[in-house]
């Protein structure tokens, strides 16, 4: 049986896992193809025609081609009319998108050097001073998240689980799995335990992959 949704990207990619978890929350079936390091090259002409940035994930459905993982998650929630994952009321939706954008820009930027050096052992990211600076910046961003979770007492954008929790939940998993010093952030810990009650997170987030 041919699925209406095709996902291009290896299942170990944190950004692909955002999309897979979103599909699980929505109950959407899909066909996934392995693309990325170790699999089909994202720099091939075939892939570059789909995403000129040579990055996964890419989705293909009856509406065409789409890339950028957070955008894909929003698109899927909207397409399937799930107003719990992505509210339609403007202020509520903006709060969800605000934290998704924060994850993609502020949080992601903070961990890039430290994670690449400490976990991937990239020879270009092994400077001890830069790693220490990266860890400090990463922890500072997580402290911002701690304050937000203290304020909501539940999920990132408020009392209900949304797509913002999918993208940030995977980021927290990466933070916890990276071998480095971390501050005690009890609200983040409690939040992580709430997420771990969701089958989609156990499958695609809290699954042994950073």
Structure description:
The structure is a single chain. The longest helix has 29 residues, at 90-118. The protein is built from 8 helices and 4 strands, in the order E-H-E-H-E-E-H-H-H-H-H-H. It has helices at residues 14-26, 45-48, 69-79, 90-118, 128-152, 163-177, 186-195, 199-204; strands spanning 6-8, 31-33, 58-61, 64-67. Strands 2-1-3-4 form a 4-stranded mixed sheet, covered by helices on one side. The model has no long low-confidence stretch (mean pLDDT 97). Helix 4 runs parallel beside helix 6 (163-177). It is α+β, with helices and mostly antiparallel strands and 210 residues long. Helix content is 54%, strand content 7%. It has 2 domains: 6-79, Glutaredoxin (3-Layer(aba) Sandwich); 90-202, Glutathione S-transferase Yfyf (Class Pi), Chain A, domain 2 (Up-down Bundle), CATH 1.20.1050.
Which runs of at least 5 residues are low in confidence (pLDDT < 50)?
none
State the major sheet. 4 strands, mixed
SS content category: alpha+beta
| Strand and helix order | EHEHEEHHHHHH
> What sort of overall outline do the alpha carbons produce when their principal axes are compared?
globular
Spatial ordering of strands, largest sheet: 2-1-3-4
Distance between the termini: 32 Å
Domain GST C-terminal: 89-210
Domain GST N-terminal: 3-84
Protein name: Glutathione S-transferase
Organism: Pseudomonas violetae
